[in-house]
Amino acid sequence: MLAFEKALEMGCTGIETDIQRTKDGVLVLIHDEYVNRTTDGVGLVCDYTYKELKKLDAGKFKDKRYKNIKIPTLKEFLSYVKDKNIKINLEIKNSIIPYKGIEKEILFEILNTKVEDNIIVSSFNHNSMIELKTMYPKIKIAALCEYIVSDLEKYKIDKFEYIHPNYIFADKKEILKCHNKKMGVNLYTINDEKNMEKFIKYKIEGIITNCPDKLKEVIDKKKF
């Protein structure tokens, strides 16, 4: 939660985060399927109960100043952002571990918090996104992928509201193709100023970055 608070202090207009599920069905925000890299624990998130997960330290790996930071729940996060007027990109991490039924559970939390208008739900599991859209047609979905054109054709995802490709494989022509299909383009993960400026000029809808302060400087400086 400290990271989300800091992001808003830095001027972010949106937050991207990742959803896994505990052994006892609690939706939590952590990028990796394993807890090893970002906590003092070992093993898969899905093998921990929420009570067990809360015992892990998710801050001191970064710096001893952040000792005792805990992995947040989706419910906790949505409660925090519901009055913030920012875009929220929830990535379901269900392409490696399928987390059966997680779409319905996430949708419940979104609708219960009444933040659906500000939400984009994304995943590399495109069938999962289609299932979510079937449940609630008003929800905005995004297809995470590496390439734009080949993936549009291969996975038939041109009916999604957004596509989230790796910026390394994106170019102006392919972005235009998405725009012609009325699809928004949010690129990941751009951390250098040169590429930030380049893709902003291509009229993409959003940049996912680890350096929001740098992106804000680019936007303010260039006055796009």
From TrEMBL:
Q: What biological processes does GO assign it? A: lipid metabolic process
The name on file for this protein is Glycerophosphodiester phosphodiesterase
Fetch the Gene3D superfamilies from UniProt: Phosphatidylinositol (PI) phosphodiesterase (3.20.20.190)
Pfam families given in the database record: GDPD
- Which GO MF terms are attached to this record? phosphoric diester hydrolase activity
UniProt organism field: Clostridium senegalense
List, alphabetically, the InterPro entries matched: GP_PDE_dom, PLC-like_Pdiesterase_TIM-brl
Q: Domain named GP-PDE: which ranges?
A: 1-219
